[in-house]
Structures are given as C-alpha cells and as structure tokens.
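Sequence in, structure out.
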Amino acid sequence: MRKKVFGRQFKRDKNERQALFKGLLSSLVLEERIQTTEQKAKAIKGEAEKLVAKAKKEVVLAKKLLGKKLNPKAIEKMISDVAPRFDNRSGGYTRIIRIGRRFGDDANMVILEWVEKSSKLVKTIKKKEIKKFQLKKVTVKKKIKPEEKKTKKESKK
C-alpha cells in the first residue's frame, strides 16, 4: 500500500526527487525555457506556478519560501525578473509545447517555457530561427525539351 507519497515518483526516493525538481525549476527560471520529458514537465509545472504566485506577493517571505525550491541565483532572478512580468496575470504562467519523441528511448519530449517571454529571449529565438530557415541560393538548370536534344545531337554530327 502506497502511503504518504504524493505526486510522481520517477523511481527515485524523496531526496533524489526533490533534487531533480529543484534542478529543473532553477533551470526554468534561469534559462526561461527547458527541454525535458513530458512527465517531468507535468510534474514541475504546478510547482512553477506556485513559485511565481509566492514571488509576486511578498519579497521577504518569498525569498525564504523560494529557498527550498530554487538555487540562490534563480531566487534573485525570479523575484527581480520573472515575477514582475506576471503582475497582471492571475495564473497560467507556463506552457508545454510537445516536440516529438527522443531518439534513444522514444520518450515524449516537450519544451516547458514561460508564457510571457523576456525581450532578450525573444531576440535570441528569432535570430536562431532566421539562421535555421535561411534559404541558400540554388541555381536551376534549364530543362531541355526532347526536340532540342535532337537538334543538338544533329548539330554535333
């Protein structure tokens, strides 16, 4: 009988699970978007929403509460950068975008990101997409009709 286990286990004990979630949440705050498996993203999405709500309320109390779930660098960024972006929003701070399956083990992969992106991230994403989809110059050879082929062969003789 499973008792006192809430949420997803991921075949890890309590300390390993907490370390995994702390790493994923800190990466989400610092990097603005993370690529992970669908199950892990679903597991930390609720935690991320709660952390933003706490960071929006009180700064002094928030630092103490966020210290349990985030790294020190992530705490500062959450309070100074991420939480102010969502002042006019009451919930739904994150989004999950499915990107397909991972090659090695066929796991469903997703991107977990903030709904309102920072201006720096938007600029870098646009630059990467532009480079990715830039068209190369391709020279197209003119197709020769069968009639013209005969005339060229005859002219060679």
